[in-house]
Design brief:
Elements lengths: L3 H14 L7 E5 L11 E7 L17 E7 L2 E7 L10 H14 L3 E10 L9 E9 L27 H13 L4 E8 L8 H9 L4 E3 L3 H9 L4 E10 L10 H25 L4
Helix pairs in contact: 1-2, 2-5, 3-6
The protein binds hypoxanthine.
């Protein structure tokens, strides 16, 4: 089997041949959160299944395309649809695109996801900026041989979400009158939603929100020294004492409604961003 470095080389060569040459910011769009893509002046669009070593997205509401173009004057490379461990991919596959982003020259990474609100002061439809996370995924993408050319064996995680990026998002939110919480995201494998006892547990261990993604990607971004920020759209309230059955369609609709706020924040963030 080809090793990770060889796979990355092949993917990079393919994307560069498609004229994806100088992306500045990487964007990963979560479940129900594809509308930002409509704002991009698209130069190149490639379905995942055409990209060497990209797994094929299987969750039907993910359209699974890599998009390169301009958004708010910045060259962006966006993943419309991400890979989840619960779909059966390995952690290497889930995080492979993040490594590709960094090696293509991406300087910052912005991720989004749909998450349940464990902190009951936060409401359905609200946004939360990740300040920190708890990794409850059953595997870690850095297990196995460490490629020193990609990053250190024992990466620091004292600030997994870049404080400068978070500050900029908070400032923009304030100026635009968009309420934004800050909190801790717990990443579980899913695909089932949580039990009442699990929501109680998540609250006790310090989570404000829970979802099934993001943390593996953020671990790899930190491994490679790629600054990142994540915005969660809170799609349901995880109140163990009043737990209504969670309807995935409702989650997607809530994400889509709240997405307008996310689009404003990301566009304005990019407009103000000055890269080295
Ligand atoms: N739990 C896990 N993942 C989720 C949830 C939830 O309540 N809501 C949206 N994604």
């Amino acid at each position: 089997m080809a090793d990770l470095i060889q796979k990355l080389d092949e993917t990079l060569a393919f994307l560069k041949a498609k004229h994806i040459e100088a992306p500045e910011v990487g964007i990963v769009l979560g479940t129900g959160l594809g509308a930002l893509v409509d704002e991009i002046e698209v130069e190149v669009e490639i379905p995942y299944h055409e990209i060497p070593h990209f797994p094929v997205a299987t969750v039907e509401f993910h359209s699974g395309r890599l998009i390169y173009g301009t958004l708010s004057g910045k060259k962006v490379l966006a993943m419309n649809g991400r890979f989840h461990y619960y779909e059966g991919y390995s952690m290497e596959e889930v995080t492979f695109p993040i490594r590709v982003f960094k090696l293509l020259g991406v300087e910052e990474l912005i991720l989004s996801n749909a998450a349940g609100a464990v902190n009951l002061d936060f409401k359905k439809g609200d946004l939360m900026l990740l300040d920190d996370h708890i990794n409850l995924q059953p595997e870690n993408p850095l297990v196995g041989k460490n490629y020193d050319s990609l990053g250190p064996r024992f990466p620091d995680m004292s600030a997994p979400y870049n404080p400068d990026m978070n500050r900029a998002f908070e400032e923009i939110a304030q100026e635009k009158n968009i309420q934004i919480h800050k909190g801790v995201y717990a990443s579980v494998v899913g695909p089932n939603l949580e039990t009442r006892a699990e929501y109680r547990y998540l609250k006790i261990i310090g989570a404000d929100a829970v979802g099934m993604s993001t943390v593996p990607e953020v671990i790899v971004a930190n491994h490679m020294g790629l600054p990142c920020a994540t915005l969660s759209v809170l799609t349901d309230e995880c109140d163990p004492d009043n737990l209504a059955p969670v309807d995935i369609q409702d989650i997607i609709e809530t994400a889509q409604k709240a997405e307008k706020k996310l689009v404003i924040l990301v566009k304005e963030y990019l407009a103000r961003l000055s890269l080295a």
